[in-house]
Amino acid sequence: MTDSLRDQLLGLGFKPAPKPERKPERKPERKQEHGGRRPGTQPAGKAAPAGKGGERRNMPQPRAQMDLGKAYALRAQQEKQERIEAERLKQEQARQRREAKARLAELLQGKALNDPAADIARHFEYGGKIKRIHVTEAQLKALNAGELGVVQLDGRYLLVDAALLAEAETVFPPAVALKVDPSAPPADDPYADPRYQVPDDLVW
């Protein structure tokens, strides 16, 4: 377009066309160091170490491990001592029982009143079971009156007088199998009445 034509158009009120803006030139980006990562960053999927030497903060400290191990050792030692003490008490009780039974056997030697000809079965409860001893009619009356008693020794039931029964009870109380209280109501010992005797052929 010539200057004269442009002047004529301007005179008629036309505005000149705007010049296109020039875009600033972009400088080429510099390659990032450390393999495309910014300095100070960690690669994806890897956690930064929590302390010196890569140790994590939630790992137990050596002192805590030592204290825990010491506690376990003390507990094991205590349990061992308790087992030893329990075994010692058990053996001591067994020894005392053996000695008491030996003294009882010596006390009762030759003093039992069992009659081989006795034909009356006197039943009684001992050790949670029904036991029996054969007595004569006179012995049955004396037994029910508390004048006689029964002692268990090595699986046998021995008939003894009340005085010897009292001595046996002081030596080894578990051996007293039958001790009748004459002042007790008859219902406390239903086997004292011959009318309620259990037949000899009855199996318990």
Provide an overview of this structure.
With about 200 residues, the protein is of the alpha+beta class. It contains five helices and five strands, in the order αααββαββαβ. It has helices spanning about 5-10, 35, 60-110, 135-145, 160-170, and strands at about 120-125, 130-135, 150-155, 155-160, 175-180. A three-stranded antiparallel sheet has the order 4-3-5. A two-stranded antiparallel ribbon has the order 1-2. The relative contact order is 0.08.
Rg is: 54 Å
Order of helices and strands: HHHEEHEEHE
| Global shape | rod-shaped
Number of strands: 5
Distance between the termini: 141 Å
Proportion of β residues? Answer: 5-15%
What does the oligomeric state look like here? single chain
Give, in spatial order, the strands making up the sheet with the most strands: 4-3-5
By DSSP (H or I, 4+ residues per run), the number of helices equals: 5
Largest sheet: 3 strands, antiparallel
Based on helices, strands and strand pairing, what is the structural class? Answer: alpha+beta
Helix fraction?
A: 25-40%
Point out poorly predicted stretches.
198-204
Nearest-integer average pLDDT = 78
